[in-house]
Amino acid sequence: MACGLAAFIYTTLPDMEQARALGEALVKERLAACVNIFPGMQSIYEWQGALSHDEEVVLIAKTVREKADAASARMAELHPYEVPAILHLPVLGVHPPYLAWMLRQTDAAG
């Protein structure tokens, strides 16, 4: 399994519509090869001194390391939250044919 070339970027959004819009932008702009969206996540957090319970949508962008910073910056630009959670998650291995596809989809193959 190849490793070191792939990156996952995790964020949460308020609803499916905004998650889809963000995901489509990342894929169309070739900042991500693929985006996974998981609806129905329950979040509990403190914001501006108040405890909040919200339903959110998780978005994970699958990209290559050389595009991760640009993808995160674009994500922050398009994100509806004042302080979005944009987290880079470690990828310990990638099936080589999938990595090759990711490189082609992000124009990072050379």
Strand order of the largest sheet: 2-3-1-4
Strand content: 35-45%
Structural class: alpha+beta
Number of helices: 3
> Any idea how many domains?
1
List keywords for this structure.
four-stranded antiparallel β-sheet; 110 residues; alpha+beta; single chain; Alpha-Beta Plaits; 37% strand; 4 strands
In words, what does this structure look like?
This protein has 110 residues and is α+β, with helices and mostly antiparallel strands. It has one domain: Alpha-Beta Plaits (2-Layer Sandwich), CATH 3.30.70. The chain contains 3 helices and 4 strands. The chain has helices spanning 16-28, 65-78, 96-105, and strands at residues 6-13, 34-47, 50-64, 86-89. The chain has a 4-stranded antiparallel β-sheet with strand order 2-3-1-4. The chain starts with 5 loop residues before the first strand and ends in a 5-residue tail after the last helix. The mean pLDDT is 94.
